[in-house]
Write a structure and sequence with these properties.
The chain is mostly helical. It is built from 5 helices and no strands. The chain has a domain of 78 residues.
Length: 153
């Protein structure tokens, strides 16, 4: 007799089905246009019923909360962009230019240039974007470890 699925497994399965359905819709331009129109109509209906308010229709406290949300979202976005830029710089500066593996890695100290110090960026401890930042930092640490290993050898 098959084992009964837990609530998390059922939710994960439904999430996967939604993703697949949306991917199928997105791959077909006609279905995608229809879906976009439905989404737009849903948005207009919610806006008409005052579930979605513009900033000028909000109360002063709601405006303040919304602007704080916008600020936080922008900070998270900017942090992600900085991290991606740093990762790209690290990869580009420490990757051999040719496809030959015998070429030594370009290290700023060997070239005679001063290394550019990038100030650390504080990371908020909560939020889903923190996982992205932590994973990126982990990749950077791993690449730095590999570089240190190659310098010793």
């Amino acid at each position: 007799m098959p084992r009964k699925q837990t609530k998390e497994e059922i939710l994960e399965k439904a999430k996967l089905a939604r993703r697949n359905r949306y991917a199928e819709i997105k791959s077909d331009p006609v279905k995608y246009a229809v879906e976009k129109e439905k989404e737009h109509q849903r948005y207009l209906k919610r806006k008409e019923s005052k579930k979605i308010l513009s900033i000028r229709e909000m109360t002063p406290t709601a405006k303040k909360v919304q602007r704080e949300r916008w600020r936080d979202n922008f900070k998270k976005y900017y942090q992600r962009k900085l991290l991606q830029k740093r990762e790209a710089e690290l990869i580009n500066s420490n990757t051999p230019s040719g496809s030959d593996t015998d070429v030594p890695l370009k290290i700023d100290n060997d070239v005679g240039q001063e290394t550019k110090e990038i100030p650390p960026v504080p990371i908020r401890e909560q939020g889903p974007s923190n996982l992205i930042l932590l994973n990126m930092k982990k990749k950077i640490r791993h690449l730095e470890y590999i570089l240190q290993k190659r310098e010793i050898i």
